[in-house]
Design a protein that fits this description.
The complex is a heterodimer. By secondary structure, chain A is α/β, with parallel strands linked by helices. Chain A is built from 28 helices and nine strands. The two termini of chain A are about 45 Å apart. About 5% of the residues of chain A have low confidence. In chain B, about 40% of the residues are buried. The C terminus of chain B is likely disordered. The chains are: A alpha/beta, B alpha+beta.
C-alpha cells in the first residue's frame, strides 16, 4: 500500500515544485542568455551581471533598499518586541483589541496602506523620500515582528521573570537575563521576516517615495514600459537567491526555537548567536559599502535642480551625467511606468516635477486640464532647428498650435511578417484576416491598437467614436479571432524572432532590431494607414524650475545628444540632424525607423476618445475578448 | 510563642472588579511552617504574592519585622520564593541558576562556590552543577529552585504549590524533604497548597481560606478535629455533615435520634450542624447501636473499606477496616467525643463567609 502510493506522491510533489519554481528557473536561465531576445539562446554570458555592477542607478536603488530594510528592521524589531512583551501583560480583551489594530497594516491591502500613508505625509507636509519610505516600512514591519515574537512570549511563564526579581534583580536586568534569551530566536526570526518584507515591498514604497528616490522594486517596475532589460533578470536572480537564503535562515531560527522549548541546548543557543552574528556582520558590511555610493543622492538637496519624470529606460544615463557636468544643474530623475500613473502623480502634486515626457493622447489631456506651461521657444533654439517639421505637424494633432510639446521619440504601428512564411507582399491590414494564416497571427492585446487595425482596414478614422463604425470593427475583430494565435503585448518581437508566428502587429521601435536577429523579418505600414505615436517633453504649469526644464529639453535636442539617446533607446528620433549622423547604414536608411513622409502622412496619432468613446470601446473590446 | 515576623492587616485585593481578598488579617510568627490552604480561587496565592511583592494590595498593610513593606519592590524584600513551575533559568546551568541572586549581591566567587555546593548538598543533588535544568526531572528541578532561593539566606521562604506538578510518590518524598529543610535552616516557611494532606503533614500552623476569607487558623490537629464550620470540615478530609438540633448541653438530636456529645453552650432546642468523621462512625450488629441502617455501597481503598450506609434518611460515609457487604443490616454508633457541633450560619452573608454551598 505504502510503496504503491509513494511514486504518486513523488510525482505530485514534483509537479507542485515545477509550477512553483519553473518561472524563477526561467528567469535565472535567461539572466545568463547572451541574446537579448527571450526566444533565443545566444550562449552563456555573465555580461548582464557585469553591467549591473556598473549601473550606478541600480546600485543606488539597491543601496536604498538595503539601508531602508536594515533601519526599518532594527526599529520595527525593537518596537515589535517591546509591544509583544507589553501585550502579554495585558488583559485578554485589551490585548486582542490592540492586536487587531496592529495587524491592520498586514491584512490591509498594500495599496490602501500605501495611499493612506502618502496622504498622511502630504497633510503633514513631509517631503516624500527616504524618511517617508522608512517610516512606512517600519509601520508595516512591526506586525511581522509581533507575529513572530508574541506566540513565543505567550509560552514564557512570567514566573521566570518574577523569580529573577525575587532573587534581587532589577526589572530590566531580570528581563534581559530571563525573558530575552528565550525570546532571542523568535526576535531574530521576526527581524529576518521584517527584513524580507521590507526588501520585497513595492506598492507601499511606490506611494510614499516621492520623486528622485527609488528602491530596487520601484526601479525595476519603472523599466517595465520599455520591456525589461536582461540586467534586471540578473538582478532579480540575485534578489531571489538572497531572499531564499534569508527565509531558510529564518526557518532554521524557528526550528531552533522549537527545539529550545523541549530540551537542553546550550550548544544550539551558541549556534543561533553565531548565525545571528554572521547575518548582522554581512548585512552591516553590505550596507556600509553601499552607503558611500548612495548617501549623497539620498540627502542632498541643491538649489539648482531639475526634477525630471520620464518613462522607464527612456534615456541614456550618460546623457544625464553630461547635462549635469555641463550645466551644474542637479538632475533628480524619476521614471514612470505608464502615462496614467504619471498623470495621477502630476495631478496630485503639480509642483513635484519640472519636466515630463508623456505620450500624445496624455499631452492632450494635460492641455485640456490646463496643467501645462506654454514653452518659451526663444530658450529652445535646438528644438526649433533640429526637430523635423513633419513631427511638429504630427504633434499638432494633440498640441494644435505647437505651444506645449517638443517631440522626443516617435514610432508607428505596423505588421512584422516573416518572408519565408508569407509569400505575397504585405500591403494591407487585410492580410491579418487571411484564413491561410490561421494560427500564425499575433495581435496586440490593447484596445486602441486592436481597434486601430480594424478601423483603418475599413478606411475609418483610427479615433472614430461613431457607434456604427465601431460595431463594424467589432464584428471584424470577432471574425478574425479564430485566426489569431494570441493577443500579446511585447512578446510579438520574441515570437517573430523565434519563428513562432508568421506575422504580428508591432511597434516600429520593437521591430527595428528584429531583422538583425532574424533576417527573414520585414516591417510594413499598410496602405490604409496606421497609428503614429509621439512622446514629447512638456513642462507642468506649476513647475518650480521651469528655466532648468527648458535647458533640459533643449539639451536633449542637440543632435549628438539625440543620437546617443537614439542608440540607447532605439525608438525613432524626430531629430533630423541626429538621423543623418547614425553610423549604421542599415539603420540610418531603415524604413522601419524612418518611414518616408508619404507613409507618415497616412498615419494619425491617437486622440482622447472622451468618456463616451472610452465606454463604447470598452464594451466592444469585451465582446471581442469573450468571443475568443 | 515566638516573635511576630509578618503581619498582614486589613488587606483587600480585587482583579477586574472581582474581590479576591476582603479585609484579610494574618500574623505569621518566626520559624513557623505556615500553610495557606484552600480550594483554587480562595485567595491563598494572592496572599502569598502580596507578601512576595508581586502584587500590591488595594488596601491594607504588609508589616515585615516591624517595617511597612507594602510598597517595596520584590527585589528589595528579604524573602525568596519557590514557584509552582520551578521557574528555573533554562539557558543557564544549575550552578549559574543558584548563583543568580548571589552575583547580584556581588558576593565573591569563593563564597558563591561554597554556597552552591552547600545548597546542592542540602537538596541532595551534589554534582549537578553543570547540568542544564531541562535535563533534570521535575522533582530535581524543584529542589534546585529551592536551593536557588535558600542560598540567599532569606528570613522567609515562600512556596507556591511547589509540589503541585509532581507525581504522588515524589510529592510524598518531597514533603519529608521540606520538613527536614525547614528544621535545618531554621527559617519561616509560608506554604501555599490546596492539598489538605500536604498541609496536615508538614505544617505547624494551617490557615484555611475560602472566597477571600480566612475560615479557621490553628494547628493541624485543631483544624482536623475541631473544624469551626462546615466548609472546613468538608475541605479537611471526608465528613458527614448533618443538620441537627442541640437539645441541651451535651445532648444533640441527629436524624430524630438523641446522641450524647461533649459540646456545650449552644442553648436549647437550637438548630446546629454536626460533623462526624467517617472513621468515627462505627458499624455494629443490628440492635447494638443508636441508628439502624443498610450498607448501600462498598469500595476497597487499600488501608480501609469505604462504605455508604443509608440510615435515618441520610447517606453516611463510613471508613472501616472491616468489610460489610452491600445489603448488610447494621446499626450506627458514634462516641460522644467524636461528634463535633457547629453553629449553623444564620444569614446568607454568613453562609458565603463560612460555607461553600455545593
Amino acid at each position: 500500500m505504502n510503496s504503491k502510493t509513494r511514486p504518486a506522491e513523488k510525482i505530485y510533489m514534483a509537479v507542485i515544485f515545477l509550477f512553483m519554481y519553473a518561472p524563477i528557473v526561467t528567469l535565472i536561465v535567461l539572466s545568463f542568455n547572451k541574446s537579448k531576445s527571450r526566444a533565443k539562446w545566444g550562449g552563456f554570458t555573465f555580461q548582464w551581471y557585469l553591467n549591473l555592477v556598473r549601473d550606478s542607478e541600480v546600485l543606488n536603488a539597491m543601496a536604498n533598499t538595503l539601508i531602508i530594510a536594515l533601519i526599518a528592521t532594527v526599529v520595527s524589531t525593537l518596537i515589535g518586541t517591546a509591544a509583544s512583551v507589553a501585550l502579554t501583560g495585558m488583559k485578554r480583551r485589551t490585548r486582542s483589541l490592540i492586536m487587531g489594530v496592529t495587524n491592520i497594516p498586514m491584512i490591509n491591502a498594500d495599496i490602501v496602506t500605501g495611499i493612506s500613508l502618502m496622504l498622511l505625509f502630504k497633510v503633514l507636509h513631509f517631503d516624500a523620500g527616504f524618511v517617508t519610505v522608512l517610516i512606512a516600512h517600519i509601520t508595516f514591519d512591526i506586525p511581522y515582528v509581533m507575529l513572530s515574537v508574541l506566540p513565543r512570549m505567550k509560552t514564557i511563564s512570567p514566573s521566570v521573570y518574577e523569580a529573577a526579581l525575587d532573587l534581587g534583580a532589577r526589572p530590566f536586568f531580570a528581563f534581559r537575563k530571563t525573558i530575552l534569551p528565550d525570546l532571542a530566536p523568535s526576535i531574530l526570526s521576526g527581524a529576518l521576516m521584517a527584513f524580507t518584507m521590507s526588501i520585497d515591498d513595492f506598492i507601499i514604497t511606490y506611494f510614499t517615495k516621492g520623486s528622485g528616490f527609488d528602491t530596487l522594486s520601484t526601479k525595476i517596475y519603472s523599466e517595465v514600459k520599455r520591456g525589461i532589460r536582461p540586467e534586471i533578470y540578473a538582478l532579480s536572480a540575485i534578489i531571489f537567491v538572497a531572499v531564499l537564503i534569508l527565509l531558510l535562515l529564518s526557518d532554521r531560527m524557528k526550528a531552533q526555537t522549537g527545539k529550545l522549548a523541549s530540551r537542553a541546548r546550550s550548544a544550539g543557543n551558541q549556534k543561533i548567536k553565531k548565525i545571528g552574528a554572521v547575518i548582522a556582520v554581512a548585512a552591516a558590511s553590505i550596507a556600509i559599502i553601499l552607503m558611500a555610493l548612495t548617501f549623497g543622492g539620498v540627502f542632498s538637496k541643491k538649489s539648482t535642480q531639475v526634477f525630471v519624470y520620464n518613462a522607464g529606460e527612456y534615456i541614456d544615463p550618460d546623457v544625464i551625467e553630461l547635462f549635469r557636468e555641463e550645466t551644474g544643474i542637479e538632475v533628480v530623475y524619476d521614471e514612470f511606468e505608464s502615462n496614467e500613473i504619471m498623470y495621477a502623480k502630476v495631478a496630485a502634486d503639480g509642483a513635484a516635477y519640472d519636466v515630463l515626457c508623456p505620450s500624445d493622447y496624455m499631452i492632450a489631456k494635460l492641455i485640456d486640464n490646463d496643467m501645462l506651461m506654454k514653452l518659451d521657444w526663444s530658450e529652445l533654439p535646438n528644438a526649433q532647428e533640429y526637430i523635423g517639421r513633419q513631427y511638429y505637424n504630427s504633434a499638432s494633432a494633440f498640441d494644435p498650435a505647437n505651444e506645449y510639446a517638443v517631440p522626443y521619440c516617435w514610432g508607428t504601428v505596423g505588421i512584422l511578417y516573416n518572408k519565408e512564411l508569407v509569400s505575397a507582399p504585405v500591403t494591407s491590414w487585410d492580410v491579418l484576416w487571411d484564413p491561410q494564416y490561421k494560427g500564425e497571427i499575433l495581435m496586440q492585446d490593447s484596445i486602441r491598437d486592436a481597434f486601430m487595425v480594424a478601423l483603418a482596414r475599413r478606411g475609418f478614422s483610427i479615433n472614430s467614436v461613431n457607434p456604427d463604425e465601431i460595431s463594424l470593427a467589432t464584428q471584424d475583430l470577432i471574425e478574425q479571432a479564430p485566426l489569431v494565435q494570441a493577443y500579446v503585448i511585447d512578446q510579438v518581437r520574441d515570437k517573430m524572432i523565434g519563428g513562432e508566428a508568421a506575422m504580428g502587429v508591432i511597434y516600429s521601435g520593437e521591430a527595428i532590431y528584429t531583422q538583425r536577429e532574424n533576417e527573414n523579418l520585414d516591417y510594413v505600414i499598410p496602405d490604409e494607414g496606421s497609428n503614429v505615436w509621439i512622446d514629447a517633453w512638456v513642462i507642468p504649469r506649476e513647475a518650480r524650475n521651469a528655466e532648468n526644464a527648458l535647458k533640459w529639453i533643449d539639451f536633449l535636442c542637440r543632435p549628438e545628444i539625440a543620437l546617443m539617446n537614439f542608440e540607447y533607446i532605439t525608438y525613432s528620433t524626430p531629430n533630423t540632424a541626429a538621423q543623418e549622423m547614425i553610423e549604421d547604414e542599415l539603420i540610418r536608411n531603415s524604413k522601419i525607423a524612418f518611414p518616408d513622409e508619404e507613409t507618415l502622412s497616412r498615419c494619425d496619432t491617437y486622440i482622447s476618445l472622451g468618456e463616451e468613446g472610452d465606454r463604447l470601446y470598452n464594451e466592444a473590446w469585451k465582446k471581442v475578448k469573450s468571443a475568443n | 510563642m515566638s516573635k511576630e515576623l509578618i503581619t498582614l492587616s486589613h488587606i483587600s485585593k480585587s482583579f477586574d472588579g472581582q474581590l479576591i481578598l476582603d479585609d484579610l488579617n494574618l500574623v505569621i510568627h518566626e520559624n513557623e511552617f505556615v500553610t495557606l490552604l484552600g480550594p483554587s480561587g480562595c485567595g491563598k496565592t494572592t496572599t502569598l504574592r502580596i507578601i512576595g511583592g508581586f502584587e500590591t494590595p488595594d488596601a491594607g498593610k504588609v508589616i515585615f519585622d516591624g517595617e511597612d513593606i507594602t510598597a517595596l519592590a520584590p527585589n528589595k524584600r528579604q524573602l525568596n520564593t519557590v514557584f509552582q513551575k520551578y521557574a528555573l533559568f533554562t539557558h543557564m546551568d544549575i550552578a549559574e541558576n543558584i548563583a543568580f541572586g548571589l552575583r547580584i549581591k556581588n558576593k565573591t566567587d569563593q563564597y558563591i562556590k561554597d554556597k552552591i555546593s552547600y545548597a546542592l548538598k542540602l537538596v541532595n543533588l551534589e554534582g549537578y552543577e553543570h547540568r542544564m535544568p531541562d535535563s533534570l526531572s521535575g522533582g530535581q528541578q524543584q529542589r534546585i529552585a529551592i536551593a536557588r532561593a535558600i542560598v540567599n539566606e532569606p528570613k522567609v521562604l515562600l512556596l507556591d504549590e511547589p509540589l503541585g506538578a509532581l507525581d504522588l510518590k515524589l510529592r510524598q518524598d518531597m514533603q519529608y524533604e521540606l520538613i527536614r529543610l525547614k528544621k535545618e535552616l531554621g527559617i519561616t516557611f509560608i506554604y501555599v497548597t490546596h492539598d489538605q494532606e500536604e498541609a496536615l503533614t508538614m505544617s505547624d500552623h494551617i490557615v484555611v481560606m475560602n472566597q477571600g476569607y480566612i475560615q479557621q487558623e490553628g494547628s493541624p490537629e485543631d483544624i482536623y478535629n475541631e473544624p469551626e464550620n462546615a466548609f472546613v470540615a468538608d475541605f479537611i478530609g471526608d465528613s458527614n455533615i448533618i443538620t441537627a438540633t442541640m437539645v441541651r448541653d451535651e445532648l444533640v438530636r441527629i436524624l430524630g435520634v438523641e446522641f450524647a456529645c461533649v459540646d456545650k453552650g449552644f442553648g436549647t432546642e437550637k438548630p446546629v450542624d454536626v460533623v462526624i468523621r467517617p472513621e468515627d462512625v462505627e458499624l455494629v450488629p443490628r440492635g447494638q447501636g443508636q441508628l439502624a441502617g443498610v450498607v448501600t455501597h462498598i469500595i476497597f481503598k487499600g488501608v480501609h473499606y469505604e462504605m455508604e450506609v443509608q440510615a435515618g434518611g441520610f447517606e453516611w460515609l463510613v471508613h472501616s477496616t472491616k468489610e460489610s457487604p452491600v445489603g448488610t443490616e447494621v446499626d450506627i454508633r458514634v462516641d460522644p467525643f467524636n461528634i463535633q457541633v457547629m453553629n449553623k450560619p444564620e444569614s446568607e452573608d454568613e453562609q458565603a463567609l463560612g460555607v461553600e454551598d455545593v
